[in-house]
Every structure is written in structure tokens, then in C-alpha cells.
Amino acid sequence: MPEPNIYKEHSKFFIAVDCVIFGYENEELKLLLYPRRFEPYFHDWSLMGGFVQEGESMYMAARRVLKLTVGLENIYLEQVGGFSEPERDPGGRVISMAYYSLIRINEHDKDLVAEHGGKWFSISKVPTLVFDHAEMVENALKKLQHKATYELIGKDLLPDVFTLTQLNNLYNAIFQRSFDAGNFRKKIGSLKVLDRLATKQTNTSKRGAFYFRFKENIDHNQYDRIVKF
Amino acid sequence: MPEPNIYKEHSKFFIAVDCVIFGYENEELKLLLYPRRFEPYFHDWSLMGGFVQEGESMYMAARRVLKLTVGLENIYLEQVGGFSEPERDPGGRVISMAYYSLIRINEHDKDLVAEHGGKWFSISKVPTLVFDHAEMVENALKKLQHKATYELIGKDLLPDVFTLTQLNNLYNAIFQRSFDAGNFRKKIGSLKVLDRLATKQTNTSKRGAFYFRFKENIDHNQYDRIVKF
DNA sequence: GCAAAAGTGTTACCGGTACACCCATGT
DNA sequence: ACATGGGTGTACCGGTAACACTTTTGC
To answer: Cα(B81)–Cα(B84) distance, rounded to whole angstroms?
Structure first.
């Protein structure tokens, strides 16, 4: 028989999730932040978060927050790590799990974001953040870079169809360095995870650049590394 | 002024830590497990865990559990990930953070472990585990492998001094494959993170093998990768 | 024709891998 | 002398990086 409430002597805690929301626009990796509405740290920038509810996993809570924040469901979401220093939040004892998500910046609900004062910041110009949110962002970026190293990302950040130059720029933005265009193209080609379409992008160059699209059902285990550290 | 208890409307949860304790012995990577003492899952094997207390971070809780479990302090400890499915623990709603630690198996307190029925299992022969503990172990092993890929590990698992063959065997155990002895030695040498001592191990071969020791103050960022996936 | 972005080709080099080979020593 | 584990040398191969070069097309 189950032990009758063997746990009740222990302490309970508020559990929050904080979402590091990445987007890509104008050749920059961007981060969605919100202004804190009360002291302490009034006016400082903050990740969007929320409290875990009864009967809800942390992952579910993060999905709920994202739905309420950017109006999107079924977007990429991954756990970053737990933050539990007793004094991390002066407002009370709150243990938080950071998640990071990737969204197509042009597909999110801009009005919803504006309602709460949300603003996109370039990853290279992140302002001071409340509590330990800077560490959450830092760890999230490392996770994103790691992911981008071992598999070709872009599906969640770029439009459905995109040019290799756009993908190259995305990688430049994520790693804050410049990948050789020729070598990048060859590497991408060798992965065989993109389909080249018949259509071309014509607004950025006279010659035009072929559009590409991610294949369906990619086996991520077959990938070579893309970036060499 | 601080908002007066803006959080109180939210739910609170029990927070636990579960420790994936790795050790190395007889050319095998091992895992320390404990038998569960009550239903459900009576007699099944389980990670050693404990509840987070007031004023304590999850990391501190994990250190406390390790001190009580194997009698060791100041050992390697790293967060693996949070587990929060509502039904994960039939005994109650508990959110758990998994940690993994590396210990020198011959330095831990064997009597303390025996008291609680703890037993070491080869990583290749892990029994059925309670709840989501198998997933914790799996993720912990992946983290360990990743760590071992980007920096030379062994300091926390091997004795102070060791031979290159021992280190080679440790890597074989961690990755469950066999690294070429010649190539392994060359790679390790190129990292310049070990000092060769004047003394030799003489019990395993007639010729004897030089002992090595990790240098102090190693800058982990300078490392090459050790394992190519 | 020329500028500008797209896309290809060439070459040198480095590191991983496989494996043959030498070394030191206890029996 | 020979078996045994320790340790070194070598040759091949593939991927990376740097960069020169060609293609296409609007102006």
C-alpha cells in the first residue's frame, strides 16, 4: 500500500518558469524582454515568466506562458536549467526553471506583446536584467549554440523558405562571427537536409538566390557537426 | 517598496533532488543505487534523493544528500535537469531536480552506504528504476559523455596518480567503446594537462607504466575535443 | 560595361585513424 | 628467449579554411 503522505513534513515552494524567447530579424538574433512593473528592480528588464500550477508540469507551464506572451503554440521549447538560490527573488522564495524557445519573429502576436510592454533586443545589446535572468539568457544562448553545432537549425527561426545567404547570416548571428560563405554552402549541401526549390529570391540581388526548405522527417543523429569550435 | 506577497495566490510544491552518483572501479563505470523501502515500487532500485529545505538551494540540498549518502564533500556535482510531470511520483506531487556527481569509489564511506542498502551497479547493467529515474541516469550519462568530450576528465574518478592505460580504460568505460591506445596517448599528450611523474606502476606489466597526475589550475577553455563523435 | 550578390573551384594543411613496430623487464 | 603490456612511428584519408574565381542580371 502507498505510504500515507510520507512527504508532509517537508517544505513547499513556489515554482516558476522563465522563458528566454529567441527570434531572428534583420540579421540579428533577438531576445524578447518585458519591463518589471514594481519594486524592487522597477523598470528593469525581465524574462517573461509564470508560476507552475497544480496538475501542471514545468514544460506545460512554459507552453502556457508562451501562448499568453506571444500567442504561439507548438514552438520549439527546451529546458535550460533550474535556479534556486534562496535570495534570488526579493519578493519571496521562488524556485525557477528557465526554458528557451525559438520563434519566427514575424509570426508572433505583436499586439499581445505590446500590451505588456514587451520589446525585442539584439542579443549583443541585452540590458541589465532582474534577479538571475542574465545567467538564464547566457545559459540559453550556450544551449542554442550547442544545438546549432550538432544539427542544422533555422526551421524554427526562419520563414518556411529561405536562401542559403539568410541561413549563413543566421549562423553568423548565433555565433557572433562570420562563416565563410563558400565553405558554409558546401557544408550545408553535404548534410542533405534541405531541398532546393525552383523559385528564387530576387529582391536582394540581381542574379537571384534559390530558396531552400527543410526536408520532412530529418534524422538528427545522422548529422555531422556544422561548427567546429 | 517591495510588493507585499504578490505570490501567495499560487501553488506550492515539494522539491526534491535526486543524485546520479558515478564511480569507476575494475574498468567499469558504476552507479550507486538504493532499494526503495515501501510501496509502490517496493524493492525497486532508486537514486538517492532528498527534499529541499527552507533557505537551501537545490545545489546545497544535493551536497547535503551526498554527505549523508557517501560521506563525501567537495565532490564534482552538476545539474542534469528538472522532472515535474504531475504523476511522476505516486506518493505525492513532487518536482525533482536531478544532479550527477563523480566520486572516487575507494574514498567513499562504504559502511554508510551499506547501512542504507546501497549497491554499485555497472552502467551497462542498471536494473529497473523507480519513477523517471532511468531517464535521469540516461541524461546524466549523456552529460558526463559530453563533458568528457570537451575536457579531459578523470580527476574526480581516478586516484591522484594513474597510468595512461587506466585513463584509457576510463574513457572506454564512459563511452562504451574502445579507443586505440596509441592514438589515445598522443591525444592526451597534446592536451598538456597531465604531468608525468618519475614513478611507475609495476604490478600490471613487467616494463612498468609511468604515473601521471592532473596539473593544477587547468584552463578548460584551451582544450581540444578529445572524442570525435 | 560594371557593380553586386550568388555560387563554384582550388589548394594547403591539420588531425584522426589504423596499424605496424619497438621497448623494457619478469619469468 | 619470449611473453606481456607499455609506448612510438608512419602513412593514408577526409574535412576545414582561405581565397581566387565564375555566373547572372539590373542598372
So the answer is: 10
Whether A222 shows a pLDDT value over 60: the answer reads: no
In chain A, residues with a C-beta closer than 8 Å to the C-beta of B39 are 1-3
8 Å CB contact of B6 and A82:
no
CA distance A41 to A24: 28
Radius of gyration (C-alpha) of chain A in whole angstroms: 20
- Is any atom of strand C within 7 angstroms of residue B159's beta carbon? no
Average pLDDT of chain B?
Answer: 92
Model-level pTM? 0.93
Residues of chain A contacting B93 with CB distance shorter than 8 Å: 54
Average pLDDT score over residue span B138-146: 96
Q: How far is the C-alpha of B20 from the C-alpha of B30, rounded, in Å?
A: 10
State pLDDT tens for residues B118-133: 999 999 999 999 999 9
Mean pLDDT rounded to a whole number for chain A: 92
Question: What domains can you pick out in chain A, each with its CATH number?
Answer: 14-150 (3.90.79.10), 164-222 (1.10.10.10)
Q: Do A7 and B1 touch (CB under 8 A)?
A: no
| A34 HSE (CA, 13 A, CB side) | 19
Asked if omega into A86 is within 30° of 0 (cis), the reply is no
Task: Tell me the pLDDT tens digit for each residue of B66-79.
Answer: 999 999 999 999 99
- For residues A60 and B84, the answer to whether their CB atoms sit within 8 Å is no
- pLDDT > 90: what percent of chain B? 82
Residues 6+ apart with CB under 8 A from B221: none
User: Average pLDDT of B173-183?
Assistant: 95
Q: Shortest CA–C1' contact from A196: which nucleotide?
A: C7
C-alpha distance from B169 to closest chain A C-alpha (Å):
26
Residue A177's alpha-carbon distances to A119, A121, A170, in angstroms, are 25, 18, 10
Mean pLDDT (whole number) for B187-194? 92
Interface of A with B (CB under 8 A): 1-3, 5-7, 10-15, 38-40, 51-59, 79, 81-82, 84-86, 90-95, 97, 225, 229
Give residue for cell 520549439.
A76
pLDDT at B8: 72
Nearest to B15 among A79, A95, A225 (CB): A95
The C-alpha cell that represents B61 in the structure block: 540540498
Cβ–Cβ below 8 Å for A10 and B10:
no
CB contacts of B14 in chain A (<8 Å) are: 7, 10-12
B95 and B84 Cβ atoms separated by less than 8 Å: yes
